[in-house]
Design goal:
Number of domains: 2
Strand content: 15-25%
Structural class: alpha/beta
Order of helices and strands: HEEEEHEHEHHEEHHHHHEHEEEEHH
Length: 437
């Protein structure tokens, strides 16, 4: 087992081989839309993908995927009496037994909902209305395969054989998008949400987005651009992409080692530190980033999720503690640029309501989405008054109330009102989640 990036201890095995396959397949998409410049980064358990094409000073959407199927009922927990009774029942009676969190351990919340103790750093955002949630979110049809569910979620076009991801479709609607190809930091594999016809240029992180010194000579760049502009071959496009990328990303690529280290020092150690520090640098540099995706695992907690007295060292506690502290650091780092940034979390599916015999939870159906930052109608769980956990689906899962595409529709409609959403989510009959103000 590889070391845990937070505490150096051996990483817990997920007990689900499909999840490891899914992560490799997720990182194995080939490209995004023509006319869009993207950059991706692999930082241990966190992966970031960026799409460029927005005008400077424009809004930014960050999609943070909880890879592995996170348990929303351990994060934002209903207080309704009937729901609490279901959660706190014994395992034999379909409940969670000794992993159910009692109400007196909630970090904060309101009259209907309580938050896991490790989410405490986010109380100020909840109270300020810049952090909210939507429960019972998921795919239109239950899919408990990590690989298939991730792919279907990121394609967002059920019933179609089209291999274009939903972010790819969104960016491709912009007739004025820049002609550069895509840049991925860390590898040449892109997530399914950005899958499309164009190739990618690979590098490691934002400070590596520079060509060798010879290529940094402007006269030589001009000559090379002229030389390679005539043909539409893959090689010509690749050279033009490289030259354009060097110029476009210079404000970020020229970040000094000292400044990069200072940026990372603002964040807690762990899987999200480098990826969020780099993401904040990209946003603050205002190079036209519009859509950013982050892959954060591992949430596949079939065993050893935690206890009814959550504390450091437990899997769920550590995951949420790092996430919550990182969110606070990220928005603090953004400063005034946070006014144009919205971050949404999503997971390929939720977990079962009832625990298994190993202090864990098996694959479920509908789960939790959270939203942070600009435009969010926070301080509550939107789209539902309760979960009706005493009326589960036939498999003992939270029943679907919100197609996840409705969630993204609401966010995009609020932050990018000019986007033609029926083209991004074909065939969706939209119902609002009320997550945006």
């Amino acid at each position: 087992m590889s070391p845990n990036p937070k505490n150096g201890q051996p990483r817990k095995a997920c007990g689900c081989p499909d999840f490891e396959l899914s992560r490799r397949s997720f990182l194995g998409g080939v490209a995004a839309a023509t006319g869009v410049l993207t950059a991706g980064s692999l930082f241990g358990d966190a992966f970031r993908q960026v799409s460029y094409g927005a005008a400077p000073g424009g809004n930014v959407l960050v999609v943070l995927s909880f890879r592995g199927g996170s348990d929303g009922l351990s994060i934002v927990i209903p207080k309704r009496g009937a729901d609490q009774a279901v959660l706190t029942a014994s395992i034999d009676n379909g409940g969670r037994g000794n992993i159910a969190i009692p109400t007196d351990r909630f970090a904060f919340g309101n009259g209907n909902w309580g938050l896991h103790p490790a989410m405490a750093p986010l109380e100020a955002m909840w109270n300020a209305g810049t952090f909210g949630a939507v429960h019972a979110v998921g795919l239109p049809q239950s899919n408990m395969s990590h690989f298939d569910a991730m792919e279907q979620l990121e394609l967002a076009n059920p019933g179609s054989s089209d291999r274009q991801g939903w972010i790819n479709r969104l960016i491709g609607l912009d007739a004025g998008a820049l002609p550069e190809e895509q840049i991925q930091i860390g590898d040449q594999m892109l997530p399914t949400s950005l899958t499309g016809p164009a190739a990618a240029l690979g590098t490691y992180q934002v400070t590596d987005l520079k060509m060798p010194d010879l290529w940094n000579d402007q006269n030589l760049n001009d000559a090379l651009t002229t030389m390679w502009k005539g043909s539409a071959t893959t090689l010509n496009e690749g050279v033009r992409t490289a030259i354009g990328s060097v110029t476009r990303l210079a404000p970020v690529a020229n970040t000094s080692d000292a400044d990069m280290n200072a940026a990372k020092a603002k964040y807690p150690e762990g899987a999200l530190r480098d990826v969020l520090a780099n993401t904040a640098l990209l946003i603050k540099a205002d190079v036209g980033a519009k859509m950013i995706t982050i892959d954060y695992g591992n949430w596949d907690m079939h065993t050893q999720l935690g206890t009814d007295d959550p504390k450091p060292g437990e899997w769920m506690y550590d995951q949420l503690d790092h996430f919550a502290s990182s969110m606070v650091a990220f928005f603090n780092d953004l400063g005034s640029d946070g006014d144009r940034v919205t971050l949404v979390t999503i997971s390929e599916f939720g977990r079962r309501v009832g625990a298994n015999g190993d202090n864990g939870l098996d694959h479920g159906y509908a789960g939790l989405a959270m939203a942070f930052g600009a435009g969010v109608a926070g301080g509550d769980v939107r789209g539902t008054s309760d979960l009706a956990l005493d009326a589960l689906d036939p498999d003992g899962n939270v029943a679907l109330q919100h197609d996840y595409r409705d969630l993204f529709w609401d966010v995009i409609e609020s932050r990018f009102p000019s986007v033609g959403l029926p083209s991004v989510f074909p065939g969706l009959s939209h119902t609002t989640t009320h997550i945006m103000s």
